[in-house]
Specification:
With about 350 residues, this protein is α+β, with helices and mostly antiparallel strands. The chain is built from seven helices and 20 strands. A hairpin with a 2-residue loop joins strand 15 and strand 16. Helix 2 packs across helix 3.
């Protein structure tokens, strides 16, 4: 039997050679390129503080249950569910994208039966890259990058890296829209990010054009949106879409909370919440009544503002040629996050 190796007896050259051999063996046996996704419940800390641990726990469980449903359907694996988020992996980027779209759709269906303050709003980040895994533990720089992408996302949004985009099929790539550059905490290199819409663009508008100001405002990926007059002195959280016209006197005719959009299976419905006039395609909608809204709908507010709801189609850009993106191999660095069983 060979005697155990005594590190203290090795020379510097022998140690360097051993490090090289071990690094090569680690890469050969445990490195794989995979699709990664992080999900995170938005404002969970505030929710726990406001509604208590029991309600917070139910919200977390709703997220985890719907995540498990989507991931299982699309052949993924939940690696970790620590805190208010989760880390999942997939062999296929196409499966990863389909699973995350399904997750948002499942949560949207749940939210339709819940008051707005109890909506489960999740942000998602996805990346394609090399990781080190033994089938349970998953680690590497790609994991850290994916977590940072998720942290940068808006409520209800799915963000992905260009590396993952190149692995999607044509129909998925055509849906993705480029995002403005944003710094990612702890990531020194620039990262090109895109958004993957998860609602049916033929039924759900993605932006609204204000005719009087020429502003084109994107609609956040939320299940309830409140539209109203924007004022510098109002407290935060009054509404999601702030409306301001070139004529300040006309702006004052718009209520602080004028109407809401609510997500339904068939599309958005408008609910008038102001005593001021609200018209949809020329039809006056009484206060507390609902009316369907889709791409092309025209909404008039107090006879001073005209809102045109529009679809957002695929962004104009060159299609990738489908070639596999080959990022540099993962490096073992201090502080790299490791996910796996305790």
């Amino acid at each position: 039997m060979n005697a155990p190796l005594d590190p203290a007896s090795l020379t510097m050259t022998e140690i360097i050679r051993l490090q090289t051999v071990l690094s090569q063996e680690l890469t050969r046996r445990f490195e794989r390129t995979m699709a990664l996704a992080f999900t995170d419940i938005v404002e969970s800390t505030r929710y726990f503080a406001q509604f208590g641990d029991e309600a917070g726990g139910r919200l977390q469980q709703l997220h985890f249950d719907r995540l498990e449903q989507a991931v299982t359907t699309h052949r993924g694996r939940v690696v970790d569910t620590a805190g208010d988020g989760a880390f999942v992996i997939f062999e296929s980027a196409i499966d990863a994208a389909n699973a995350m779209v399904q997750l948002q759709q499942l949560l949207s269906t749940e939210n339709q039966a819940r008051p707005r303050e109890h909506h489960c709003k999740v942000r998602i980040g996805m990346h394609w890259g090399p990781v080190l895994t033994d089938g349970e533990v998953v680690t590497g720089d790609s994991v850290n990058l994916c977590a940072r992408i998720a942290a940068s996302a808006q409520p209800g949004q799915i963000r992905l890296s260009r590396e993952l985009l190149t692995q999607l099929d044509l129909s998925q790539r055509q849906l993705c829209r480029p995002l403005p550059s944003v710094p990612l905490k702890g990531i020194s290199r620039p990262v090109e990010l895109l958004q993957l819409p998860w609602r049916d663009a033929s039924r759900f508008p993605g932006q609204v054009l204000v005719h009087e100001s020429g502003e084109c405002l994107p609609l956040p990926s939320l299940d309830t949106l409140c539209f109203g007059r924007g004022e510098a002195t109002q407290p935060p959280g009054i509404h999601d879409i702030q409306l301001a016209l070139p004529d300040s006197l006309a702006t004052r005719q718009i209520s602080r909370r004028h109407f809401e959009l609510h997500s339904r299976a068939e599309g958005f419905v408008l609910k008038a919440v102001s005593s001021q006039l609200t018209e949809v395609d020329g039809v006056a909608v009484p206060r507390d009544q609902e009316w369907p809204i889709g791409p092309g709908s025209i909404v008039r507010l107090a006879r001073v503002a005209t809102l045109e709801f529009q679809s957002t189609g695929p962004a104009d850009r060159e299609e990738t040629d489908g070639t596999m993106y080959s990022p540099s191999p993962a490096k073992s660095l201090p502080g790299v996050t490791v996910f796996g069983p305790p």
